[in-house]
Design a protein that fits this description.
79 residues; alpha+beta; three-stranded antiparallel sheet
C-alpha cells in the first residue's frame, strides 16, 4: 500500500506560503538554504507509527513540523 500523505517538505512550503508576509522569492532563498528537505522527507517517511517533531528557523520565522496520529502538520510562528 502506497502512502498518499504529502511529503514533509511539501507541507512546510505550503505552511510558509500561507504565512502572512513570508516569501522565498522576496528573500531570494529556498527551503534548501535552511534545511535538507530530502532528509526531512526521509525522516517522516520512516516514522509512520511514531510521533516526531522538528523545529528550525528561516529568516525571522520558526517552522515546526510534526507527525502525530499518522498525519504530518506544520506551523509557522514569528520568532
Amino acid at each position: 500500500m502506497k502512502d498518499t500523505q504529502p511529503k514533509a517538505s511539501t507541507i512546510i512550503v505550503e505552511a510558509l506560503e500561507e504565512y502572512d508576509g513570508f516569501s522565498f522569492k522576496r528573500r531570494d532563498s529556498t527551503l534548501y538554504d535552511f534545511v535538507n528537505p530530502d532528509a526531512l522527507n526521509s525522516l517522516f517517511a520512516h516514522t509512520h507509527d511514531e510521533d516526531v517533531s522538528v523545529q528550525f528557523d528561516i529568516h525571522d520565522v520558526t517552522v515546526t513540523v510534526w507527525r502525530s496520529n499518522g498525519e504530518i502538520s506544520a506551523r509557522v510562528n514569528d520568532q
